[in-house]
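Handout, tutorial session.
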Amino acid sequence: MRLLMFQAKRFWWKSFSKTLAEVADVQAEDEVADTVVVFMHAEAKDAINREDVFRKALKNVKWLANKRDLKRVVLHSFTHLGGENAEPEFAEAFIAELAERLRVTGYAVWVTPFGYFSEWELSVYGESLGKVWKEL
């Protein structure tokens, strides 16, 4: 699992084009202020250690959100961070479970359309922790 996380002043996205034929047709546009934006790349090896990877991903997202007392999170599947891609079904289920776990612990969570390229605008805070890379 590779995570590129941002403490964002603002994140806007709009679905652009479908990249996986099997996903539902979606036209989505949304914007969230004062949020942690998580670009996630699920790798094939993550299925082997799913529980450990899930725990670490959850911990890292919450850690970064708590550094600025942010209670909003946007999860974005981003398979351009390198490594061998996980199966789409695994990645989609992982993101959905992570979103639900975050919601249960008090975060408002958005998930960008899975299996789509999206347009986006991202405004990030300038401190060092405004941008964090993690490979789990």
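The second record follows below. Compare its token runs with those of the first.
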Amino acid sequence: MRDESQIKLVPVRAFSGGTARVDAELAQNILAAEGVECVLSGDIAAGAILGLQVQLLVREDDAERAAELLEAYFDTTPGSAAPED
């Protein structure tokens, strides 16, 4: 087991704009449902003040998986067909 002080958190996605906090919390819930621990970092006023961001941080070891899970959810256009090989 790794010492908690040795755990490195890395940003996996940043959210900004009027729905930044809501989007970040949704992403946090998606990862939690898949067993990926994460935390939010950033200003709570990110939705109200343009230019501020809420970052989603995960353990460095979970970053690739977290990015894939979030990409599958946020970056998929509803109704689009999967690319053909």
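Points raised in discussion: The chain has two helices and three strands.
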